[in-house]
Amino acid sequence: MGKMIAIAGACLLALAPWGAGASETGTMICRGGIVSIGDAIPAVLHKCGPPVYATQREQSEVTGSSRHGGTKTITRITIDDWTYNFGPNEFMYQLIFENGRVARIESLDWGY
């Protein structure tokens, strides 16, 4: 009996990371198709419809160096964060777009 409890406990510990927080994934399945890294916003809307929540922000990236007469380049990036909720029997997903293309897909907790 004690051995079965130890095995059950080990299984729960092994599965714990999936129930806590976000985990990065490379794809998301919607009714209209599979969303992958690099997909454009119109393609995602066609495959999945509108998100339940969306935000947009601007971010600046500095590249290069101004040391010894070098040149610094400042690039502005538009970041869109979209959240999809497919219901209580599916995980929610967050898509992060950079300049209109999927840069990251994260699996979140269970939907509602």
User: Helix share of residues?
Assistant: 10-25%
Tell me the total number of β-strands: 7
Poorly predicted tracts of residues: 4-19
The shape, in one word, is: elongated
What is the number of helices?
2
Radius of gyration: 20 Å
Secondary-structure element pattern, one letter each: HEEEHEEEE
Order of strands side by side in the largest beta sheet?
Answer: 1-7-6-5-4
Strand residue percentage: over 45%
Distance between the termini: 37 Å
Which whole number gives the mean pLDDT? 85
Counting helices, strands and paired strands, the structural category is alpha+beta
How many domains is the backbone divided into? 1
In this structure, how is the largest beta sheet organized?
Answer: 5 strands, antiparallel
Can you walk through the features of this model?
- Residues 1-22 form the signal peptide.
- InterPro entries: DUF2845.
- It comes from Geobacter pickeringii.
- With 112 residues, the chain is an alpha+beta fold.
- It has one domain (22-110).
- Helix content is 23%, strand content 48%.
- The strands form 2 sheets. Strands 1-7-6-5-4 form a 5-stranded antiparallel sheet, with no helix packed on it. A two-stranded antiparallel sheet has the order 2-3.
- A hairpin with a 2-residue loop joins strand 2 and strand 3 (33-36).
- The radius of gyration is 20 Å and the shape is elongated.
